Amino acid sequence: EGLLKDWGVAVDDGAVFETSADRTSQNQPFFATLEIIHAQYAEAFANADTSIIAPMARPLTVRFARQEGYVTQNILQFSDTSGVRPSNAAADFSAADAARRGPIPALVECRIQAGEQTSRIYVCASASLVDSTILEGNAFLNRQFLLKLFSDLGGGADLVSFAGKKLTDSFVHIPTVTANSLGIVLAIALPLSFIGLGILIFIKRRRL
Question: What is the DSSP string of 24-48?
Answer without folding.
Answer: EETTEEEEEEEEE-SHHHHHHTTT-
